[in-house]
Amino acid sequence: MEYGYTYILECSDGSYYVGSTNDxxxxxxxHNAGEGSEYTKPRxxxxxVYFEECLSxxxxxxxxxxxxxxxxKKREALIEKQHxxxxxxxxxxxxxxSTTETxxxxxxxxxxxxxxxxxxxxxxxxxx
Length: 128
What we know:
Elements: E1 4-10, E2 16-21, H1 24-32, E3 47-54, H2 57-68, H3 72-79, H4 86-89, E4 92-95, E5 100-103, E6 110-111, E7 120-121
Antiparallel strand pairs: 1-2, 1-3, 4-5, 6-7
């Protein structure tokens, strides 16, 4: 079985890039050579600030998509290994046509990041 990795890069402008790969060292080198993503090319150099080893590249890709939906604060809590903060940072304010409610990770309310085209059940986001 081939392992996969989910990783977070800090770009030269301070932004974060989340990706997945089956060869972490090669992929970081590609990013820094300008052969990575279109997002990182104008933001070189990049620095690896976090990674997770996953049981498969498919699992790593799914984790990548999950983390991409997170706020900057939640990503920073993960990077800084402040796992106790993740459940609170998972709470979001959800507006409906007539009410506003706060969704917690176990509420089952689905949200979508603007432009993502996919919905993520908050109940499926759990801290590692």
